[in-house]
Design a protein that fits this description.
alpha/beta; single chain; two-stranded antiparallel sheet; 14 helices; disordered N terminus; disordered C terminus; five-stranded parallel β-sheet
Length: 332
Amino acid sequence: MDSRSLVPTSAGFQLPVAQLRSVYETHEVERRLAKLPERDHETLRSTYTRMLERGPERFQVKPSGVPDMAALYEQLPNFTDALDDVRRHVALAQDSRDGLEVTPMLLLGPPGIGKTHFARKLAELLGTGMQLVPMSSMTAGWLLSGASSQWKGAKPGKVFEALVDGQYANPVIVVDEIDKASADAQYDPLGALYGLLEHDTAHHFVDEFAEVAIDASQVIWITTANDERSVPEPILNRMNVFEIEAPSAEQARRIARNLYLSIRAEHDWGRHLAAEPADDVLDVLASLAPREMRRALMTGFGNARLARREQMQVDDLPRSAAGQRPRMGFVQ
């Protein structure tokens, strides 16, 4: 089978394999495995064995041309600058032997504005899978870089998992709410990022559990934050920062309509409901943050079905949505 056929494609965006790329040295894994004592270290032994069985080569994908991203611009109208940046990187990779590289980006904006949703959509577009690292619940840097095998219950970090257990050399890794990383005097939760966000040093990233150099230089990094003041300056300097504003009233209406259409299309029960939302329903949905729109729509769809109606009505939406509470930061 042609390896290109194993790579998923998105409408208007063909992603053939540019090449197979080795993400670690097999002989180094063999050396580490041979040095392990016969007893104990079963988890580490299993990790090395898995690495040898899987082999070091991963798909490095790239676009065959600059994609038609009109649908994404329509779905994410307040992310235009970030989408433009992705298109520029895609243009650099086309008609060359290089894989797709994207400068690490920080999406900066208020909660619920759709930053994580953007990251998921980008991962779908690129087709290389996504690892989500929620920093708000992270208390130690080992979540990214692994914990020493000397510690009880230690295991590899998210970067290792994405590259060793995944299929691609250039996966999307989303560090969500980077400004909420818990500061710890003994261990900086963001410590691993200093090297990972630098292309040159990321070539030889060492997970503290496996202690084998991994090539993480092709990882596509997307970070999100509500407040840049809580993000260390050296981290900010390693990324392209995009300030995401709340959608305008018209943009919010478009987002609500697109979300209605996508949810309806994704479910078989959608055929029982109207192909287009009513104008007054859109007016109410547009008053919500993008994160809340999906929850409100799911409630509305369910209530419409209970009433055996095709058309969703304003009364089908949650009471909090129907009350049209004003949203902080909403652009009039």
